[in-house]
Amino acid sequence: MPLTHFDDQGRARMVDVGHKADTPREAVAKGRVRLKPETLTLIRDGGIKKGDVLAVAQVAGIMAAKRTHELVPMCHPLMLTHVSLQFETQPADDPNGLATIEISATVRTTGKTGVEMEALTAVSVAGLTIYDMCKAVDRAMQIDAIRLVKKSGGKSGDIVLE
Known about the structure:
Radius of gyration: 18 Å
CATH class: Alpha Beta
């Protein structure tokens, strides 16, 4: 299958979606931040000096989804109808003794193109925000496993990857 973001000369281009019908679209992305258990305790107890970490990360993720087209060059500006982020904390359960904050973002629109990039951007920026707010107490944090887990709508139909 040819890549759609290249023209006949091999140069990058924004795909023309003008001919496509508006359809309901949804995407869900996930990722995680691994951190010291003590850092997770500080987050839960409101002990991070910069403020409520997960509330700020939630707002940052929503803002990022809305501005994805400004960050990713070939993305179309979209009128999003819904953006939500959820955070699930888990105690230390890996061989390195790190705790986890699982991040999930759901994005919806009715339009000509999907919202996968918006969901992925929301998760990424939420993770970066957690890192930024907690780096003074935990420089060993890891942001990883950012991935699309579900999308619906459009010509390619539904995809469930998790």
